[in-house]
Amino acid sequence: MEELPAHEMRRLEAAAASDGVSLDDLVSRRLAGEPLQYIEGSAPFGPIEVRVDQRVLVPRPETEGLYEMAVKMVRNPEIVVDLCTGSGALALALKHAFPGATVFATDISEEAIEVALENRLSTGLDVYFALGDLFDPLPASILGQVDLLVANPPYVPKGDFADLPEDVRREPEVALLAGPTGLEHIQRIGASATRWLRPGGVVICEIGETQGVSATTSFVDLPAVVRQDLSGRDRYVVAVKP
Ligand SMILES: C[S@@+](CC[C@H](N)C(=O)[O-])C[C@H]1O[C@@H](n2cnc3c(N)ncnc32)[C@H](O)[C@@H]1O
Predict the structure, then answer these.
(1) 197 within a domain of the structure (yes/no)
(2) CA angle 202-147-215, nearest 5°?
(3) Could you tell me if residue 20 is inside a domain?
(4) How far is the CA of 136 from the centre of ligand 1 (A)?
(5) Which of the two ends of the chain, N or C, has the fewest CB atoms closer than 10 A to its terminal CB?
(6) What is the domain-level CATH number for residue 90?
(7) pLDDT tens column, 93-104
């Protein structure tokens, strides 16, 4: 029989003990390809812990890297926006880091917004979560006022779904897949970012490792550059509005 690595077994043993469920059941679920964090029911993200299940993407270390970059680049923001918020991890962690900021976060998935609201309740962090397409649900009053705009949009090309690992394919398709090129959401974010930022405002968008060049040219009227993740792969487009 296939075996799980020791570090995964230790985590499943802890989950079985804390939930009073059978370890064998949890091991079978993991061996069948369910993400470890869905089985545990939560995932750490920077300074917080968020609930995760099949309704949302499991927050990744690369996105924690985005959080850390944002916290280093921005001082005392008043208005923060997180597009494609999923579990709400990034928006909630930014509210934790910047308690004085008003934080807005949007997602097109009703189920993701449900999870984000559950995480707002469990963390006690007051973020405005809104259902809708990218910038659409944001109040017009913050046009040109945003100090920090972050996004981890779907960026896998539709045709690449079958090549993803089994546990990743268990995550919502709407969280993973963009259109035929993978760049569709990034391009739409890039086309509008400058209208929402105030002068001096910062945008950081997570991208796929091969998308750097195309992604930077999408950020219209902004001096966008590519930054790498901890593995040295192109992972973020960053710009400060002049
Ligand atoms: C890669 S996941 C990121 C989730 C979360 N920000 C994180 O980093 O863990 C992308 C998210 O974008 C949402 N999404 C997809 N298309 C969208 C759109 N057009 N407008 C807003 N959200 C969208 C998905 O529902 C999913 O929650």
Answers:
(1) yes
(2) 30
(3) no
(4) 14
(5) N
(6) 3.40.50.150
(7) 999 999 999 999
Amino acid in the structure at residue 233: R
Q: Map tokens 């930077």 to a residue.
A: 216
pLDDT of residue 86: 98
Q: Quick: pLDDT tens for 155-209.
A: 999 999 999 999 999 999 999 999 999 999 999 999 999 999 999 999 999 999 9
Cβ–Cβ contacts within 10 Å for residue 173, how many? 11
Pocket lined around ligand 1, Cβ cut-off 6 Å: 56-57, 59, 63, 84-87, 89-90, 106-109, 112, 133-134, 152-154, 174-175
Examine residue 3 and state whether it is found in any structural domain, yes or no.
Answer: no
Contact 131, 139 (CB under 8 A): no
Paired with 130 in beta bridges are: 106
Domain assignment present for residue 5? The answer is no
Domain span at 87: 55-240
Query: Alpha-carbon distance 51 to 111, whole Å?
Result: 13
- The total domain count for the chain is 1
Structure confidence at residue 1 (pLDDT): 54
